[in-house]
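JOB MANIFEST
job_type = single_chain_structure
chain_count = 1
residues = 219
[input]
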Amino acid sequence: MEFRCPSETVILEEKYFSYPLTSVACNLKLTEKVLFVGITTKDKTEVEKIFLDDIVGCHAFRGKNGKTKIETSEHSAYFCIYAYPLKTFTGILSKQHRREKRNLTFLMRKNDSEDENYKVVEKWQRAINCLIRGKACVIDGEVSIPDIVPSSKKFLILINPKSGPGKAYQIFKEKVIPLLVESDTQYEVLVTAEDKFSLSKNMWINPFIFIEEQASSGG
């Protein structure tokens, strides 16, 4: 069963299967701002909206003969989106907002060739990554997906292992590195040797990007 999305230009539209529940068919539609996921069960279609502003990255994979260890059809290919939607929680005195990680994987198996299936998912990966990095996929009303995804800026990350409770490196390893990998962000790490350490933006030039005028580290 088809579903309608708003009047935005549909960049890509395709039938996938969810993973790991590969028996569930998903009708995907990608616009400039939203990925619509339509799931039909018993003649009833439910549509979920994944806002591109909440997506940090998208990766494409081949089947079990490729880069993944997923045990399924050798002709399949996949793409996975890494999203951090904003959730609202009711606290004791007020509402609190927090982003929670959510990974969604979609399986493509309509073609008999793994290469053909991978071409499909790679096109989706390219379009999504271009959109979340500010590269247009619709020009003068016509769909035009760039051949190359813009590269991310390179970050210099400062870690002071002696500051605070001394868990800065552990936090970086467990919580920050996965996010950097998901978003294909380039980075270098500088582990400081002093308890109190800061540096001015003027001390550093390209290829690094700074979030604030003054960068500092702590645990």
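[summary]
The first helix runs from residue 114 to 132.
Residues 65-71, 200-218 have pLDDT under 50 and may be disordered.
exit_status = 0
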